[in-house]
Amino acid sequence: MENQKRFFERKDFKSPIVLGFIAIYIFAVVLVFINEPNNALSYIGLSTGILFLCWWIIDLTKKITIQDIKIKKPGFELIIGLLFFYHLG
How far apart are CA 62 and CA 5, in angstroms? Predict the structure, then answer.
């Protein structure tokens, strides 16, 4: 498997965004257990499945490479685009 990098490194789990997400997720799970204990396991299973699906999509799209797009006359195309959107509005 060439050019395959791990999706999460150990240092990534210590970033403020990931720690904040984990804290909010734990807070949401506790609120679900308090407010709707009958449905709590369903909610936790569903949210874990959605989280796994998002991780899988991000992992698949990180491997895609996109070619750079060359614009020959950027000023001309910008003016045409602005006139087009001005006409729509």
Answer: 10
